[in-house]
Amino acid sequence: MSKEIPIKVLCEMLNVNRSGYYKWKARQGTLNQYEQDRKDLTELLKEAHLKHKTYGYHRLADLIRKETGWVFSDNLAHKCCKFAGIKAKGRKTYHYHKGEEHVKFPNTVAGQWTATRPMEIVVSDMTILKTKNGTKYEWTYILDTFNNEIIASSLSPKTGDVKPYFDCLKTLVQKAKNRRYPSFCTLTKVASTHRELSNKLMLIVPI
User: Fold this and answer.
1) Given 47, 56, 72, 115, which is the most exposed site by the fewest CB atoms within 10 A?
2) CATH class as words, domain 122-201
3) Cis amide leading into 118 (omega within 30)
4) Are 45 and 33 in contact (CB under 8 A)?
5) Residue 114's closest CA among 147, 88, 142?
């Protein structure tokens, strides 16, 4: 069209500055700063996604900010992820159907918690004790359901420490050593998922 109508006339008709038109024409085929930033950020997001497939765009954006010092919004990261098809891959989870039990040891108690003699049924639990100055201790204990007597206990300043469980089990084994009838022990999740502790528990359930 510029061969038929001069550029000056076309710019006047479209109310466009002629120098602006020539600048726009010179930029054809090249990316502006915003477009280049989006392209670079998309590549960084792709690389981070390959290493951390479970990360969403928020965590990927935080990771890139920490590694590069680049300041950009989560909204921009979301747009780049959406454009590149980057989606977080959820971790595999296991679901148990209603009524299905996940049992490490046989449930010999089977809801019958009434003990007829000492050391017949014992249970274990853990609680957090907090002092006036704010110090926290983890108290683990084993209780005899026959008379609610605490037959073993241990205190630890470390949260999630399994040593108190070992100490309590050691005391329980010593006290139940000469018993000829079964003794049962239930432990909290921290203890029951610890392999070495579970192996020791097999030595006393039943005794």
Assistant:
1) 47
2) alpha beta
3) no
4) no
5) 147
